[in-house]
Amino acid sequence: MSAHRPRYRLAGRIARHVLLVVSATFALLPFVWMISLSLKPPDEIFQPDFHLWPKTFHGVENYRVALTAAPMLRFLLNGVFVCAIIFVLQLMVCVPCAYALAKLRFRGRDTLFSAVLVGLLVPPQALAIPHFVLLHVFGLLDTYAALILPWIISAFGIFLLRQFFRSIPDEIIHAARLDGLGEFEIIWRIMIPMSTPALAAFGIFSVVAHWNDLFWPLIAVRSEDISTPALGILLFRDDEAGQFLGPLMAGATIIVAPLLLAFLLAQRRFIDGLATTAMK
Amino acid sequence: MAEIELRGIEKRYGEAPVLKDVSLKIKDGEFLTLVGPSGCGKSTLLRIIAGLEDQDAGEVSVGGRPVDGARPKDRDVAMVFQSYALYPHLTVFDNIALPLRTRQLSFAQRLPLIGPLLPGHTGIERSIRKEVEQAAAMLDVAHLLHRKPGQLSGGQRQRVALGRAMVRHPTVFLMDEPLSNLDARLRVQMRTEITSLHRRLGVTFVYVTHDQSEAMTMADRVAVMMGGELLQVGPPEELYREPQDLRVAEMIGSPKINIVARAHWADDRSVLSAALAPQAKHLAFRPEAAVLITPADGVTNGTVTDLENLGSDIFVHVALRDGSETVVIRTTPDERRFSLGSTVGLKVDAARLMQFDEAGRRCGNIERVAAA
Ligand SMILES: Nc1ncnc2c1ncn2[C@@H]1O[C@H](COP(=O)(O)OP(=O)(O)O)[C@@H](O)[C@H]1O
Ligand SMILES: [Mg+2]
């Protein structure tokens, strides 16, 4: 038994790694392809033989076009602004809701929580038309508000934070009440600092979702100066379709880069946050 | 002045009653322990006194003032929790300072960034620092003020929790099994520290525990609770000598009190049958209320099944008749020794024999209790 256990373990490890490498390759392939295309001249892109690295390096030209042909910087700033405001407003709604659902006792709490779970099941696309009509009625279409308002109540955020808050012992909250903190101060001074992993995890979900979102900006916004990166690059494709695939891919790389960078920097935190929320 | 009075407290969670008509008066400056098996409602009662939970019926008053409906912070009550409930993201200093800050600083002064710039902030912070340092010195945690709770040992966390409770000078201290997470040696040491803290502060302590020896050694008075009811309240020696309920008799004292069925002993000369009350169903006696003698006719005989030698005492386990009842008798090492398996006679001091009726209530010599 003990004689063949190491070998068995080694085989298991190899199998595990092969599986991971294969799935990682599939996940990364489009991404690598995008970067590869963003470095190639137009005539090389449609050649039947595929090279990862271009024969003639056209990267500088592609990225120059990407940055100048459309107001890319403006799109990026719009993206940062919209994502940040969405996240802040989401927290202002989700944190108190999650606290009440996790720690306060009141009539109808469980029903309300079921409602949140139902909210989790509704695809955002299903709400696009009602949102559009509402924003039209209030005259907010084609403004930053149109990009932000539909997202500030996040059922997912309420659910995630509520689960995390439940893992914080009641005794801490009792101690805080005896120490003279009011409920909002308990949220602000106790719950939020104790929940940084969950908040970080939710932050990443939220920012990634809205940074990459194309569907809703496409419906709500037409002006170039409030476009988010994903929408901006689409406007750009409309103009320069086809032969300008290189600059298009360069643009895509530029809008993905900030997320990638942020993820690499916060990787450990993010994974910890996911692991702890999953465990509880 | 901070006596606590509970009148007819009832509490239920859903269908299950957790507290049934609990009435209790706790004197100013008293150290009262509340002892009972886990799940009997001790913590719930404490939370009701603190105002963290609303009772379904009954009244609570603290210092002669009804506090029903008053918020926890307005009751002048501090609580130490079983898990210590320290704020893990704050340093020891900030943990202890928090109750002072919420009371002494205004809402605006507590705001982050702007708060410290407001007039008066610096002066108040300075006096808070002094008080925190004083409390920390008293509890021997002054050198830990800059650490986070996660970096402390169990005993140190316990002291910080005590510091946070006492720093604002409450008139009532509620403690919910504060020592149950400590190892045995530290527990005994902290017991004496808590009782001496009580003597120094001179305020009312209500101390919850499921450990009867903790309850007995620390308290002025002990309240025994079971199944949401208060069974008996009294000084430790009264609970030990004159339990009014079989369950109290069983809970208090180590080793446990000996309980035998009356039916088996009715014709035994070692117990005067005539003195037994007619309704008595169970007889009970403490391990020191009987002596082992040479086996003879007319007394109860049994077989020694076990010997526990503690050095100062030897507890002899004796199986009576067919072994269906076992009693534990205390002997001293100077007395005659008994060997395992030997047959011995048992003689119970009739004056210290307690009688309980079918329902477990004390009967028979109850008059003597009333006189005492
Ligand atoms: N918040 C609650 N919801 C429902 N039941 C509870 C709650 N708190 C306590 N209980 C129940 O009340 C009973 C008494 O609990 P507790 O006061 O914590 O007992 P103890 O402190 O004596 O161990 C237990 O049966 C427990 O399950
Ligand atoms: Mg308890």
From TrEMBL, chain A:
SUPFAM superfamilies: MetI-like. The keyword rRNA processing does not apply. Belongs to the binding-protein-dependent transport system permease family. This is ABC transporter permease subunit. It is found in: Cell membrane. It comes from Bradyrhizobium cajani. The chain crosses the membrane at residues 14-35, 75-101, 113-138, 144-165, 186-208, 244-266. It comes from the Bacteria. Keywords: Cell membrane, Membrane, Transmembrane, Transmembrane helix, Transport. GO terms for cellular component: plasma membrane.
Automatic annotation (TrEMBL), chain B:
Keywords: ATP-binding, Cell membrane, Membrane, Nucleotide-binding, Translocase, Transport. GO terms for molecular function: ABC-type transporter activity; ATP binding; ATP hydrolysis activity. SMART domains: AAA. GO terms for cellular component: ATP-binding cassette (ABC) transporter complex, substrate-binding subunit-containing. Signal peptide: none annotated. It is a peripheral membrane protein. One of its GO terms (biological process) is carbohydrate transport. It is found in: Cell inner membrane. Residues 4-252 form the ABC transporter domain. SUPFAM superfamilies: MOP-like (SSF50331), P-loop containing nucleoside triphosphate hydrolases (SSF52540). InterPro entries: AAA+_ATPase (IPR003593), ABC_transporter-like_ATP-bd (IPR003439), ABC_transporter-like_CS (IPR017871), ABC_transpr_MalK-like (IPR015855), ABC_transpr_MalK/UgpC-like (IPR047641), Mo/tungstate-bd_C_term_dom (IPR008995), P-loop_NTPase (IPR027417), Transp-assoc_OB_typ2 (IPR013611). Pfam families: ABC_tran (PF00005), TOBE_2 (PF08402). The keyword ATP-binding applies. It comes from the Bacteria. Belongs to the ABC transporter superfamily. Involved in beta-(1-->2)glucan export. Transmembrane domains (TMD) form a pore in the inner membrane and the ATP-binding domain (NBD) is responsible for energy generation. This is ATP-binding cassette domain-containing protein.
